[in-house]
Amino acid sequence: MLTVGIVDDNPLDLDKLELIVGKVATVELRLKANNAEEVYAFIQETPVDLLITDIEMPGMSGYQLADFIHLNNMSTSVIFVTAKSGYAVHAFELNVHDYILKPYNQERLVQSIERFTDKKEAGKITGRLFIRSGGDLVIIPKDEIIFLERTGRTTTIHTTKDIFESYQSLGELEGDIRESMFIRSHRSFLINLQYVKRFTEYSKKSFEVVFEGTSQKALVTKEKLKYLQENYF
After folding, report:
1. DSSP H helical segments within the chain, as ranges?
2. Architecture of the 2-122 domain
3. Model pTM?
4. Mean pLDDT in residue range 43-72
């Protein structure tokens, strides 16, 4: 069962959230509030899996609440439901699950909740990747892979513990991984979304990907970033 909290200072919008969330059979609504301060106090004692919140509210904003969750590495994920589009880029820096603009329909929010449920149930990546590196066969646990990069004739695999090089193509290795959290972000990069920390603007057509666990960076196209917004974050 997915535990959820909802917060919005507008009573009608809050009731709409409650009505939609209540129709999702796999959800248990743990918290309904009209201000972020109440949620802030509650989740410190009883974290929820998912928090659905407005952004602009009197006192503490939904953005400040999400920032608190992010800075404290809490297990609660966030969906912003807001009438303001200007926070979208900053929202990605906080690794929010989704950003939904008002007015929205029931299907849009339910699909977002279901995507989060699928991602949560998938859990940790399992299995190992076998690569040819020089004359050796190297076995790498998939959950240690941060990203793969194609440079010239070789593919570099960045992991939490080491860096490996292989003459296998990125396409070949992508076929061997076949995990939902690995995404081809760019023609030269395959990234593990579990290690993504933030996206920063790099050029007119792409963003730079900053990861946990390495100072090395990857690239994501604007088109792919939009896809990630709609389906993963």
Report:
1. 11-22, 36-45, 62-71, 88-93, 106-122, 170-177, 222-231
2. 3-Layer(aba) Sandwich (3.40)
3. 0.58
4. 91
